[in-house]
């Protein structure tokens, strides 16, 4: 397994692909005011949902709806965060 990780340069690929995902999430953040933050390392990325960007009040009600809708369309996401107001891609 370690040979494959090294030979296929999987660490660099995760970094490259993670950057692509975060760039797209930043576009969504600029478009949707309820996305309060985008963060991640490599391909582990997350979006934080807030009711108001200034107060940072968690918008945890939207996360199960979003995850459910994505699952119906073949995409599995995870809820995360202290207030369950984040969606995490791993």
What does this structure look like?
It is a single chain. This protein has 90 residues and is an alpha+beta fold. It is built from three helices and five strands. Strand 1 and strand 2 form a beta hairpin. The radius of gyration is 15 Å and the shape is elongated. The mean pLDDT is 95.
Keyphrases for this structure?
90 residues, 5 strands, alpha+beta, 3 helices, elongated, 5-stranded antiparallel sheet, 43% helix
Q: What is the alpha-carbon Rg in Å?
A: 15 Å
CA(first)-CA(last) distance? 19 Å
* Percent in strands: 25-35%
Number of strands: 5
Helix content: 40-55%
Mean pLDDT: 95
Coarse morphology:
elongated
Brief digest:
By secondary structure, the protein is an alpha+beta fold.
Topology:
Elements lengths: L1 H6 L2 H22 L3 E7 L2 E9 L4 E2 L3 H11 L5 E3 L5 E4 L1
């Amino acid at each position: 397994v370690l040979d494959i990780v090294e030979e296929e340069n999987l660490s660099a690929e995760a970094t490259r692909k993670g950057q692509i995902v975060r760039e797209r999430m930043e576009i969504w953040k600029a478009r949707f005011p309820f996305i309060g933050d985008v963060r991640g390392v490599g391909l582990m990325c997350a979006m934080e949902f807030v009711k108001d960007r200034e107060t940072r009040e968690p918008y945890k009600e939207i996360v199960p709806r979003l995850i459910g809708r994505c699952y119906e369309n073949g995409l599995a996401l995870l809820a995360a965060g202290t207030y369950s107001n984040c969606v995490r891609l791993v």
